[in-house]
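Hi R.,

Here's the chain you asked about this morning:
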Amino acid sequence: MEQMIARADFMHTNENDMQHEFTAACTRWLRENRDSITVQQAQAILRALQDKVCRPDFPSQGTSGFHMAFHLLKELQSVISDLIDDGKASQADFQGAYLEFILQMIQAGLNSSHIDYTFLLRDDRNVNFKEYFQTLRGEALCRVVRLLKKEYIPDPGMDWRTFYSRSFDKFYRVFICDGLSTEQFQEAHREFLDLYVFFNLGFKGRDQETRKATMEFAHRIANKYDRNIFKGLKDVGLLTGTLEELSEINLEAEFPQAQDVDNKLKDDLSNILKAVSEEGLFGSMYDVILDLALNLTVRKAGCEETREYFEVIGRFFFHIKKESVSNNGELFEGLVKKFIYLLDHVKDEVYLTFRFVEPIMENCLNEAMGT
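And the predicted structure, written out as tokens:
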């Protein structure tokens, strides 16, 4: 069977005679050899099909090439079911193989055919893949999330809106967001943050429809963390790096490229500052936050849109928790030096008329000094 698959040409879209000839030959072979097929043979057939399917230019959903692979996969699943029912194989013999097939399709680019095959494998109750998927932990889980970080391209002749509504939304909504457990999202928080930032902020070169889709993916991820991907993170290095990345985007001369980009970046700045406050990390991060405020006045002086970001920072200082700063002489000394430096180097003094100076003075410096 592996040789038959290797010789077959799947790279066509409208070759019905070839499709029927191949599917008939596969069905005949599997039925004639059904009683003698071993676990190892079934696994080898699955790998042979995987090698054919997992390529970025594989034909789209509904083509003759698509139907050839779909038919063979269905027939093979029937054989696997018999092996498990007869006690000749266990579910574990195929769960890892199914996962590897899916991951290779993701790595290849994940077109509409790949997504259909993913759900065919996922929904195989005999192999019990859905439950197995929720047992993934450690590196196996992180590998899944890391592989998702890529630029996806709709099938030839299909725009993003169609690709998203027909296939891609289902993949992210059902297979990833609903398919992984709350515990898995917590364990892979760092990897999901990286994926979130990529989808939300990696907008350069993406048109509006693509941005809309990728931002929706990011939104679905954030919902798993109470609508704030930064919530619960205590890693100062990770939060600082993310804030600096966000700052660099904001400080680029061409920013904001569009209103949706501007809105999303403001939301992310607000959410990361909220996490800093809630996790009591003010003392470790006030310097990078004030650096951002200073850079806004220096590098973006006169930019109307940028002033709103300055106000977001001002609100952060206004709502800072007293316990984060109260009676902390070391914090007071460091904060005073940073604040004075900012006031001495500000390039657009109109920023200082916003709610910024007052909350730093009253909510932070006075509290830290104990007055």
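Residues 1-123 form one domain.

Let me know if you need anything else.
M.
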